[in-house]
Design brief:
The protein is an alpha/beta fold and 517 residues long. 42% of the residues lie in helices and 15% in strands. The strands form 4 sheets. A 9-stranded mixed sheet has the order 3-4-5-7-6-9-10-14-15, sandwiched between helices. Helix 10 crosses helix 11, helix 10 runs parallel beside helix 16 and helix 12 crosses helix 14. The two termini are 41 Å apart.
């Protein structure tokens, strides 16, 4: 079949990492139906140096005005735009806090991150009462923040809502010169838009800078050590913090780990295979129950999903919204409920509608849900644009089209259903106006306190092997395994995981070696 690229995931790792935002609760049944600074030049390079404690003292000592926002407290925290120039321009982080439910049991503040990059930590605080145990909420003020460039913090801005709609729905045949040219043109449109709309911020939203922000947040919260719970991309952020500030590292839990040592292609390949395996697990479960829209063997069912992508690639399906379901949108719609086995019934309903009724409404709803698109066509959050920006600094382009072609073929061979939509990921970052200089490598965090890594054996977005690897890399890392399907564990797994995480965060108790839940 033609190799098509899902434009909504233009850029290194965007396909996979956009999808790594934590989805703790099963989906409900689907209805049928910046700154104004001058843009950086194309030759600019993003670098981050380590400022001294004295240079950052004013940030650590800043007085933050907490104000009531519903049942929470909200505030803005100032951080440097660039840590190379801590006395220069400032940006703000939006922070939300849910107070401990028991002042006598309180041990401190727990900073949380849901992943992405580009997902809102403020929104994760909103879900704290549903996700986190009573013991954890008694022991901690739960504190979420939108990282630099994201949502309510100083945000990046790249394209209009209408442009994002078009880009998300576009299919590119990268086996033709015309398809590659169209893909490259949209990558250039995005990159130029980010430069115009985000100014100097676009070169300063890398993960290392965000980790340095967390140390300012630790100081503002008046905590000697950072206690932290990070999901998915949030594990990369947490591991980076531990590498930079091992002496300030308290009890860290990294759930659904990224492997910091992997290249962009290795990461994309792992995720493509992970979603392929998750689809097979879903199909096996579907075929074993009533009213499955798929038939035959597991291989047959997977091929039927693949055929659906081919069909809508040639002839998009109508939907109740008046928009069409393209192959790119169908790809997103299928992946979304694979994050949690509790949502597999939603995928069955959507596939039944698409395959048997020739109606793409439910799959379109799921694709929009993942992208944060509202029914009126607006994108209240900038998760996709922030994802582009962070990843292009963290995983700079190789700049080698011949290598991209080789990697695309490897993705398609290893993951025939999802791989074709995840190739040529370097295209956007090759056009990016600021060239990141980050290099991937193992994270040791030498001298840190013990760090818990939680891995789920059937995790499609952050494969279990990555958690094993991160736990081995960290000098004081240890692994807790959850045997199950879906992305991440704490808040959606079982009592064994809850007890292990709670005991470690609250009391620092390290569970037995090799704990499996």
């Amino acid at each position: 079949m033609p190799r098509t690229i899902r434009a909504g995931v233009l850029g290194v790792l965007v396909a996979a990492l956009t999808l790594t935002a934590c989805t703790p609760e099963p989906l409900e049944r689907v209805p049928d139906a910046g700154p104004t600074a001058a843009p950086p030049t194309a030759s600019a390079e993003a670098t981050t140096s380590a400022p001294s404690t004295e240079e950052l003292q004013a940030y650590h000592d800043q007085e933050v005005a907490w104000e009531a926002c519903g049942e929470f407290e909200c505030a803005e925290v100032a951080v440097p735009l660039s840590y190379d120039e801590p006395d220069g321009e400032r940006i703000t982080l939006a922070v939300k806090r849910l107070a401990s439910t028991d002042a006598d049991a309180r041990v401190g503040s727990l900073v949380i991150n849901p992943g992405g990059p580009g997902s809102s930590g403020m929104e994760l605080v909103d879900a704290a009462t549903a996700m986190f145990s009573e013991d954890l909420r008694a022991a901690y003020d739960v504190v979420g923040f939108d990282p630099r460039g994201v949502a309510a913090s100083t945000p990046v801005d790249c394209v209009s809502d209408a442009e994002l709609d078009r880009i998300r729905s576009a299919d590119y045949d990268t086996e033709t010169a015309e398809g590659l040219d169209a893909y490259r043109a949209d990558a250039r449109l995005i990159a130029d838009g980010c430069a115009r709309g985000s100014g100097e911020l676009i070169g300063n939203v890398d993960t290392e800078s965000a980790a340095r922000d967390m140390d300012i947040l630790r100081a503002v919260l008046d905590e000697e050590k950072l206690d932290y719970l990070g999901y998915s991309y949030g594990t990369f952020l947490g591991a980076t913090y531990a590498e930079l500030f091992p002496e300030n590292t308290g009890n860290l839990v990294l759930d659904g780990a990224m492997d910091p040592s992997l290249s962009s292609h290795e990461t994309t390949l792992g995720q493509a295979i992970g979603f392929e395996e998750a689809l097979r697990a879903y199909v096996e479960d579907c075929l074993g129950g009533p009213d499955c829209p798929l038939t035959g063997s597991v291989d047959d069912g997977v091929r039927q999903v693949r055929t659906l992508f081919d069909v809508v690639g040639d002839t998009p399906l109508p939907t109740s919204t008046g928009r069409e379901l393209t192959a790119s949108l169908a790809f997103s719609g299928v992946i979304t409920p694979l994050y949690d086995s509790a949502s597999w019934f939603v995928l069955s309903s959507a596939l039944d509608q698409a395959i048997n009724d020739r109606d793409g409404s439910q799959l379109l709803f799921l694709a929009d849900l993942m992208a944060g698109r509202e029914a009126d066509g607006t994108y209240p959050k900038n998760s996709t644009e922030a994802n582009w920006a962070v990843n292009c600094l963290d995983f700079p382009s190789s700049g080698d089209p011949a290598l991209w072609q080789q990697q695309a073929e490897e993705l398609e061979a290893a993951a025939p259903t999802f791989g074709p939509a995840m190739g040529y990921g370097d295209m956007l970052c090759d056009q990016w106006p600021v060239k990141g200089d980050a290099e991937r490598g193992p994270v040791r965090a030498e001298g840190s306190a013990p760090i818990m890594v939680v891995g789920t054996t059937g995790d499609p977005a952050t494969p279990y092997e990555w958690s094993v690897s991160l736990a081995e890399q960290l000098e004081n890392g240890f692994l807790v395994t959850f045997e199950g399907e879906g992305h991440t564990a704490y808040g959606r797994s079982n009592d064994c995981v809850v007890r292990a995480v709670d005991d470690f965060l609250i009391d620092g108790t390290v569970p037995q070696d090799g704990l499996t839940c």
